Amino acid sequence: MAADITLAAPIGTASQPSSFAEFWASFRENKGAVAGLVVLSLIVFVAIFADVLAPHSPLEQFRDAVKLPPAWYEGGNWAFPLGTDALGRDMLSRIMHGARYSLFIGLSVMAVSIVCGVALGLLAAFAGGWIDSAISRVMDLIVAIPSLVLAILIIAILQNPSLEKTIAAVTIVSLPRYVRLVRASALSEMGKDYVIAAKVAGVGSLRLMLRTVLPNCLAPVIVQAALGVSDAILEAAALGFLGLGAQPPTPEWGAMVGDGREFIRSEPWIVTLPGLAILVTVISINLFGDGLRDALDPKLKRS
Amino acid sequence: MIRFLIRRIALTLPTFVALMFVTFVAIRLVPGDPVEVRVGEHGISPERLAEFRHQLGLDQPVWKQFADYVWRLFHGDFGTSVVTNQKVLTEFFTLFPATLELAFCALIFAIGIGIPAGAVAAVKRGSTYDHMLMGMSLTGYSMPIFWWGLLLVMFFSERLGWTPVSGRIDLIQYYFEPVTGFMLIDALLSDQPGAFWSALSHLALPAIVLGTIPLAIIARMTRSSMLEVLNEDYVRTAKAKGLAPWRVIGLHALRNALIPVITIIGLQVGGLMGGAVLTEYIFAWPGVGHWLIDAISRRDYPALQGGIMLISSIVIIVNLFVDVLYGTVNPRIRHGR
Q: Which of A94, A92, A74, A276 is nearest to B154 (CA)?
């Protein structure tokens, strides 16, 4: 993130030497955002080092320790701190590995939709005419179909749900907001003097697009991207829950909640813990994203 | 105003055309021949196959098929389910009242709590209440609602035994012919003691689950919109005039603060339909969301196609309606652009 921000700054704010320091000063005032960043870093750390940190393999089935409750309950065992699921797999290890899938989905969706969104948004803004109309109408259409329903339809078309298809479906669903955002801010930038000056100076249109206009459209996109990650994670988890996302035995959190559904009465931890992991992750990303917005885009600041 | 209306409708038309095109293409992209799906795995003679193909219009050129599809849509024919052999439109509108009732109650829940809670938070800005509400709102819109639904079932249904786990009413005790399709109203009309209560207790949890995200968003939006309005000159004037605080807040501030909130509520409709899929799935609620998931697992693609067409059309129309409503309450939108 930090690298993007410093990259984004040079054009408009070349005279201000360290816009990152300025950003950080404003960001750290927001206690919620800092808390979100801390928790999020922790989750990222766990996801990266899941292989080392997790006490067991997420797939290993301990046949003599099936449906063990978390250790602090009666009958629990500290060998399995958060208990085991219906097949005797260690819940803690599965949740730790699950962080990888959720973050991977969130980040891939974000990366692909930023690239496609920026490309389509800039194209729409610069080309105008029928290209603009076509792109805008397709985005209207994607927005008109409820996102989960559209994602389900895409999975149905692609057949045989998997992690990659989940990413594809969620990316398509989340594309419009980036396209619209980039298009709108590019259009508003294009009327400004510095762009006209660049045009008069004879800057080529590709250079104009990417070097002159784009950096000045990035702040809202970065903010949107941070908040978009949390939506992508929720959407993907919902697909996993419905059995249309990552397939068993993948320890994806949404799928874990879905698989554990039948044990809700007798062994509730199989359902509650992975869901709690989703909630905590999404909250921390949202807190971080809100802080990012307040720091980067004071105009949008929530009072 | 009429010009604004016409322009808005004209902007919607290409979306409809694109929607028809996408649903048409989508069903052709889905692997598996519709004829095979209908016939099943039994052997079939080539003549019968050709007959089926002809019946389904699959022997025509593609552009003709698309034209036929559009023609049929305009005549209210959204296809026939290959599983039940029922018209998709009939199936959809038998189940739709259940979804509508659920979504409507969820919205009532969200608006009824969200607006007052958000307004109070704005007035008491910075108080413990304000911080708590914002924390709850953050949790609310970060919530994986499928999990939230299961948690509520676990607590209220399994542990406390207050609410039933699934369905719309206790079918063993109460039976009556649907009149309006809305269980709450039908239960009242049936004059059976306890029926209304049974329907309400079935509805409560699903409506809360579906209403949670809109509630969080509406509360937050009302708060920030209210904060902006409270700084406006006319509110200060009203205060200075010596009006009672509740009049200033309720009449002068809240009324104006609600304009952006209305838009946000309108934008929730799409999300509500998506949320309804999950909610209906968890609570075995016999609505269109549940039906759509069933259609996928049965590979009933005509039902999926028609269902998505219908749901999206409803969302488009509601959004159009909200836009027009917004233009009515806020003339700047109407004349601008």
A: A276
Q: Which CATH architecture has domain A43-296?
A: Orthogonal Bundle (1.10)
CA distance B244 to chain A (A): 25
Could you give the ipTM of this predicted complex? 0.83
Nearest chain B residue to A133 by CA: give it: B14
Chain B CB contacts of A283 below 8 Å = 138-139, 142
Asked if B30 is an interface residue toward chain A (Cβ–Cβ < 8 A), one would say yes
Using DSSP, state whether B67 is helix, strand or coil: helix
Question: At residue B285, what are phi and psi to the nearest 5 degrees?
Answer: -85, 120
Using a CB–CB cutoff of 8 Å, tell me whether A237 touches chain B.
yes
Q: State the pLDDT at residue B38.
A: 60
The domain spans of chain A are 43-296
Tens-place pLDDT, residues A110-155: 999 999 999 999 999 888 889 988 898 888 888 888 888 889 888 8
* pTM (2 d.p.): 0.85
How many structural domains comprise chain B? 1
* Dist CA B93 CA B101 (whole Å): 13
| B304 in A contact zone (CB under 8 Å) | yes
Q: Is B234 contained in some domain?
A: yes
Identify all chain A residues contacting B18, using CB atoms and an 8 Å cutoff.
Answer: 137-138, 140-141
Any domain includes B129: yes
pLDDT tens digits for B178-230? 777 787 777 777 777 777 778 888 888 999 999 999 999 999 999 988 888 88
**Cα–Cα distance for residue pair A168/A165, rounded to 1 Å:** 5
Of the candidates B18, B147, B227, the beta carbon closest to that of A275 is on B147
Q: Choose the closest CB to A264 out of B14, B139, B154.
A: B154
Confidence of residue B264 (pLDDT cuts 50, 70, 90): confident
- Please report whether residue B121 resides in a domain: yes
Supply the range of the domain harboring residue B170: 94-284
Residues in CB range of B138: below 8 A, 6 or more apart: A283, A286, A287, B216
Has residue B197 been placed in a domain?
A: yes
CATH of the domain at B143: 1.10.3720.10
Sequence-separated (6 or more) residues with CB below 8 Å from residue B278: A148, A238, A241, A242, B145, B146, B149, B289
User: Mapping DSSP to helix (H, G, I), strand (E, B) and coil, where does residue A90 land?
Assistant: strand
Residue A300 touches partner B, C-beta closer than 8 Å: no
